[in-house]
Specification:
The complex is a heterodimer of chains A (118) and B (106). Chain A has 118 residues and is mainly β. Chain A has no helices and eleven strands. In chain A, strands 2, 4, 5, 6, 9, 10 and 11 form a seven-stranded mixed β-sheet that branches. Chain B has no helices and ten strands. Chain B is globular, with a radius of gyration of 13 Å. The chains are: A mainly beta (118), B mainly beta (106).
Chain lengths: 118, 106
């Protein structure tokens, strides 16, 4: 059974770059037709897709965040990562990594709270 | 962009009730629609995909229907563990838009 686990700082200063890593176990990140995705959820609000990376390495980003987002993959560590630059208070949220099967997100990490504050 | 609109935003319900949640897409998404359940402090859980296919391990009291722009999630007999927030999500575009959520509460 595939498991995902987010890791990274819980507190980021305004204007800094957030770096999160998702470690995948129980499945190879480089095999299968999956999209490896980042999704966030501000407190008390809905879910927003940040972007995703395909097993081929191609990426798709939410246009509203496009200029600030980079998603990359490290197949040797079975991990994929998120970088979000120029963080503001509006980026405070729980960040999830998830596996997209094409028809839906069938596996999720537990989520990590990221707070933007000086 | 496709917009996903759920109604109602909250549903007062009791154990044993039949609960129906509606999701409308701003354009035709065929059957590329998924439903999720989220409990407080937890990640969402995939319930339904392809508008009506039950994800493995999900109880059969959950069902989905619809195609095109109008979809429904039905819980046939609400159980105590079903009190949660439910989200629909389109799976046809690159951007995977979610609805705003429907809270099923006592």
């Amino acid at each position: 059974q595939v498991q995902l686990q987010e890791s990274g700082p819980g507190l980021v200063k305004p204007s800094q770059t957030l770096s999160l890593t998702c470690t995948v176990s129980g499945a190879s990140i480089s095999s299968g037709s999956y999209y490896w995705s980042w999704i966030r959820q501000p407190a008390g609000k809905g879910l927003e897709c940040i972007g995703r990376i395909y097993t081929s390495g191609s990426t798709i980003y939410n246009p509203s965040l496009n200029s600030r987002v980079t998603i990359s993959v490290d197949t040797s560590k079975n991990q994929f990562s998120l970088k979000l630059s120029s963080m503001t208070a509006a980026d405070t949220a729980v960040y999830y990594c998830a596996r997209d099967r094409g028809y839906g997100f069938d596996s999720w990490g537990q989520g990590t709270l990221v707070t933007v504050s000086s | 962009d496709i917009q996903m609109t759920q109604s109602p935003s909250s549903v007062p319900a009791s154990v044993g009730d039949r609960v129906t949640i509606t999701c409308r897409a701003s354009q035709d998404i065929s059957s590329w629609l998924a439903w999720y359940q989220q409990k407080p402090g937890k990640a969402p859980k995939l319930l339904i995909y392809g508008a009506s296919s039950l994800q493995s391990g999900v109880p059969s009291r959950f069902s989905g229907s619809g195609s095109g722009t109008d979809f429904t999630l039905t819980i046939s007999s609400l159980q105590p563990e079903d009190f949660a927030t439910y989200y629909c999500q389109e799976a046809v575009t690159f951007f995977r838009a979610f609805g705003q959520g429907t809270k099923v509460e006592i």
